[in-house]
Amino acid sequence: MESDPDTLLGLAMDHRRDGRLDDAGRLYRTVLTSRPNDPQALLGLGVIHLRRNELDRALPLLESAARLEGGADSARPMYARALVMAGQFERADSLLSERPQPPPEIELLLRQRWGFALMAESKVALAEIQLQRVVQLSPDVADAHADLAHAQLLQGKHLEAERTLMRALALDPGHADAMVNLGTALRALERVAEAEAAYRKALSLKPDHAAAQRNVGALLTAGERHAEALALSEDWLIRQHSVAAAMTRGAALQGLGRYDEAMACFSETATSVEDPYEPLTGVGLAQAALGQYREALSTLDRAVALRPTASLGRYRRAPVRLMTGDFEGGWRDYEARWQEEAFLLWSRGPAPRALKDRFDTQVTVEGLRNRRVLLVGEQGVGDQVMFASMIPDLAGVARDVVCVCDERLVRLFSGSMPNVTFLPPAGTPFSLAGFDTILAMGSLGRLFRNGTDRFGGAAFLRAPPESLARWAARLGPARGRRIGLSWRGGTPGTRRAERSVALIDMAPLMAVAGTEFVSLQHGDPRKEVRAVNEALGARVKVFDPREIEDFEDLAGLIGNLDAVVSVQNTNVHLSGALGAGCLALLPNVPEWRYMAEGTTMPWYQSVQLFRQAERGAWAPVIKAVVDVLSAGGGR
């Protein structure tokens, strides 16, 4: 009979196989009216709801079918599949574990989705366990290896990720995503040339691969190959306009000092895409480089509002806030630097990439009380001097402080702050387990310099008497005021051309009556100094660079001078830290440490600032310094 439940079940199964799901569903429901616990009807109706992604209706039906003896064998895997699709991974795992050999396709689905879900929750170590099992189930599938490598990369397991990615690429040499991630692993291992080759290979496989474009652009920018990045990005844009290509072009223009063009590039991109977050951060960066600080803050605020938890907008907003006096907000944003690959590529100092996830960026001053703290230097040596001004604050709170800093600073810091242990980064035998808190030097600002009233600006370093005496003998009797000179600062990647002045252009300084000059310039400027001395009839003293390579020796030399005249570089920081008079020559748009305006900087009482009124106009700045020195100032 047509109304017989078994007959109806047979018809329903035929309808389901033929794709007539509505007819099958009606028949299954009819059967359940007379036989509410019929396992086949429960299973069949549950499968229909599952195929329609109606999980809230499928789950109770499949659960009931799985519990009933007659349908257990076929219903349990289907119920497990539904649990996986609903994100109930632990219940699915428990259900599958009841069978000695769970269906491989269901377990594979479980491990994949569970792994991806854990990745989305930033539970990367747990995700790796699931993705390892995916590889065991699918050893010949390139995607399985590539997904596992991604989890390894996120944990900083770069060597393991490299090996896993090489297996993925052996299975599928055309896997562009795996090639990009291989580049990222190699870059983290500081094999930069190999990383670039991997990124370029990915672009040969997929010319519009956004991540490959971004990463090639980032490497070229970090390597100060701005012209090459510009040409490459313009080739990309001819083929297809993309945010990645436009951002690379804007960054290249920025690196070349073509700030108006950079801003136009970023602005055009911001108005042409659905999500303007990234190009808005570029607009803000260009505005800041043009000295348009208020506009930059407004633009970067807009970007951060679009993605409050993303790091790029806050990373780029931090220096603008700091240089305009918003120290509390600026230091808060400054912590985003550790999430930005651009910072990790650019940053110098002993802070290794492997430590970035160990730094405590949320600790409070009270949380440091009586704690054992490892402080790690970051960025350039000048930044480490500046940040070191807060080490006495930290030492006054913590029980013990060990600071790993540039080896050239160890002697000077140790003699100036004897209650802190200073170690060089190379060959330092210590265990991270011996510390309660690990801090990056730049994070001290958030703790101890949250307002202009928190900067004392007093000297905190001192040259030892023996160094002072040695340099006094080395210099001999003075024939007037002794002035230290430093005319070059930064690298091409930190706007060296804008920050530096030719020594020959300092001729008006050398003509000041009753003065003699000593080179403090980093590197080996002896040939340059000799040429200027011959051209001007000047007598700028210059020493073997090895004599002032260590900062204790350099501090002893500065301690024998009446004043220092320097462009923005490490000599400004060291002079201020020693309390030595320093006249600093600043470009129209200085680094954030020098603030957006004013004749002083909060870090050091003894530093006087002389700013360009117009970009590149050094002559008026030098004249102002000449006037101060001629009047006997600068001490």
Can you characterise this structure?
It is a single chain. The protein has 635 residues and is of the alpha/beta class. It folds into four domains: 5-102, Tetratricopeptide repeat domain (Serine Threonine Protein Phosphatase 5, Tetratricopeptide repeat, Alpha Horseshoe); 136-143 and 154-346, Serine Threonine Protein Phosphatase 5, Tetratricopeptide repeat; 353-454, Rossmann fold (3-Layer(aba) Sandwich); 465-630, Rossmann fold. The chain contains 32 helices and ten strands. α3 (39-51) runs antiparallel to α4 (55-67), α5 runs parallel beside α7 and α26 packs across α30 (551-558). The longest helix has 17 residues, at 104-120.
Number of helices: 32
Total domain count: 4
Total strand segments: 10
N-C termini distance: 111 Å
- CATH A-level architecture of the largest domain: Alpha Horseshoe
Describe the oligomeric state of these chains in a short phrase: single chain
Mean pLDDT: 91
Query: What overall form do the CA principal axes indicate?
Result: elongated
How are the strands of the largest sheet arranged?
A: 7-6-5-8-9-10
CATH homologous superfamily heading of the largest domain: Tetratricopeptide repeat domain
Structural class: alpha/beta
- Calculate Rg over CA atoms: 33 Å
Q: Assign the CATH class of the largest domain.
A: Mainly Alpha
What fraction of the residues are assigned to beta strands by DSSP? 5-15%
Report the biggest beta sheet as strand number plus sense, adding barrel if it closes: 6 strands, parallel
Q: Helical residue percent? A: 55-70%
Structure described in brief:
The chain is an alpha/beta fold. Helices cover 56% and strands 7% of the residues.
